[in-house]
Amino acid sequence: MSRKQKIVLIRIIAAAVMTVALHFVPVEGIWQLLLYLIPYLVIGYDVLRKAFLGIRGGQMFDENFLMAVATIGAMALGTCGEAVEVMLFYQIGELFQSYAVGRSRRSIAQLMDIRPDSASIERDGELVEVDPDEVEIGDVIVIRPGERVPLDGEVIEGTSSLNTSALTGESLPRAVAEGDPIISGCVNETGLLRVRVTKSFDDSTVSRILDLVENSSLKKAKAENFITRFARWYTPSVCCLALLLAVVPPLFLGGWAEWIRRALSFLVISCPCALVISIPLSFFGGIGGASRSGILVKGGNYLEALASTRIIVFDKTGTLTRGVFAVSDVLPEKGVSADSLLETAALAEIYSSHPISRSLREAVTAPLDANRVSEVREIAGCGLTARVDERLVAAGNARLMAQLKIDYTPCDKPGTVVYVAAENRFLGAVIISDRIKPASREAVDALRAQGIRTVMLTGDTEPVAKAVGDELGIDEIHAGLLPGDKVARVEAMLAAKNTRDKLAFVGDGINDAPVLSRADIGIAMGGIGSDAAIEAADIVLMDDDPAKIPLGMRISRRCLRIVRENIAFALAVKAACLILGALGIAGMQAAIFADVGVMVLAVLNATRTLRAIGKPRRGR
Amino acid sequence: MKKKFKIEVDCANCAAKMEEAVKKVPGVTDATVSFMTQKLAVEADDERFDAIMGEVVKACKKVEPDCEIHLK
Description:
The structure holds two protein chains of two kinds.
Chain A lengths: L2 H20 L6 H28 L6 H14 L3 H32 L7 E5 L2 E5 L9 E4 L9 E5 L2 E4 L1 H4 L5 E3 L4 E2 L4 E2 L4 E5 L7 H11 L6 H32 L2 H14 L3 H20 L2 E3 L2 H8 L1 E7 H5 E12 L5 H11 L6 H9 L9 E7 L3 E6 L2 E6 L1 H6 L12 E7 L2 E12 L1 H12 L3 E5 L4 H11 L3 E3 L4 H14 L5 E6 L5 H6 L2 E4 L6 H6 L2 E3 L6 H36 L4 H20 L13
Parallel strand pairs in A: 11-18, 11-20, 18-19, 20-21, 21-22
Antiparallel strand pairs in A: 1-2, 1-3, 3-9, 4-7, 4-9, 5-6, 5-8, 10-22, 12-17, 13-14, 14-15, 15-16, 16-17
Helix pairs in contact in A: 1-2, 1-4, 2-3, 2-4, 3-4, 3-8, 4-9, 4-21, 7-8, 7-9, 8-20, 8-21, 9-20, 9-21, 10-20, 12-13, 20-21
Chain B lengths: L1 E7 L3 H13 L3 E7 L4 E6 L4 H15 L4 E3 L2
Antiparallel strand pairs in B: 1-3, 1-4, 2-3
């Protein structure tokens, strides 16, 4: 509890004790009023002060003003005990609210506790501890095991494994070695690392993420704007009703004191705070809970939109697939072993830097001896020939085989096909293709179970796209698209859908920034280290895991359900109090009790959004 | 130009009222107050920004006398 809160608590206790004691003091009339005035002022002096300042500032429907009028009115009617109790409850409610809000603020801060305190920099061979702000690009910093990486950089010496869980929610450590990029916010677990800084602190991953999360509450959800607009209208309306209730019925029925008493309880109910507080608190908690799972949401509005997403459009390469080529199939001819086919192909391509050649070499486990290879001749657009162990080997596409007049078995598997021949005899084919991420299937399945239409856009050829789409069970595939075509496709889908349904586009942010910003919600993958993704997207998935999308949708739905529960509950209780108050069944104490009670429950309900959500259960 | 300021405000409804008041200050094109993160974002004319912020503080004090705005 803060100092301010402690003072309020002491005032509450003091006023409560005095009020209870006064019940046993047998005084009447003016003396009773004066005695009750002591606890009343102890508990309510700040409310009265603010009410006074509010009137001067032209704030008629300020809640302090309402509370002041209601309680002073109650005293004037001779029910001093009631006035003190109402003020007491009001203050208890305010205290609880500020305590709960403070707590959830702190738990979010803890969640995002990735800010490094210092950096160890090398200067003239000595280690100096400095503020991460002071480190410049090109400086060399040393990160010991157990320390947090303070700035983005590149490892120049040492190997270690990094714990990225604070950023990605992923507990599996990531191995780094010399030459690897390293991002701030991770924790160095095992080895000493020397790192050359590549970004200033303000541009480093950790600063950008903190900035994003801290500012996310400035982008407000529709529900939040709705409730503040509602509050602006609600309070004056209820006050008018109170005035009518105080004046109109007694004109016909008489009994002024009783009707005024009922009207005063209206004023208590008209305070909007219980309604207003729980909504930002829910969204704040939802965004915090999502970032704990490695899903950064840039605003309450996006969290809200995610819940009503009905169409998810995926980019293929780098999103559903790894975007890294690898040997997916080896098809040797009769009498040739798969291993020797691969080895021959890899040796022939040993000097090439083409990604296809690299994946061929990576597929061979045995060491490759470059001395076995000579006379490499590249044939542009076709492949190459090389002498491997005295045999003339040709490796390349169908055109190369045709050119060399080699009798080969054509292969129509999706992917890039490398045909291999030695001394004009066909040895077989190696298929190289992009690999599907293991989590993609799970993601698409979960989305389909939620009734969401999935679409895949890709610049790749139809057969490759179809193979990936069929394996994952994607509803709709558009292949052979240029980046501009992707925007056009998404725009067409946006125009065709119902406006209430939202469309999300998921990409890796590398060349799809225009599509990310055009979609209702742009979701970028692998946000770590990618500036473009963090800039263009509305939601950033910190790792490459597409299964975070259904998880994010579940978080957003739960958050919105809690928001709706709170709105409905608070409105229902307020309406009930108004009716009971008008009929004279519920008095002012009941009204304040209900009001504070609603607020406590709404706040407790809202803090549920902070809790992380588990992995989805199978079969749901 | 858009700038962010740290604020201190005790109740959610007051924060909403401050937001409303800041938006009405002449020269302010847009403003948001976040109660949860205790932040105020103001978008206003570049040249008169400081003068406008003076008005913003006045407007906020009027609707919520107990609020603080830290103009760094």
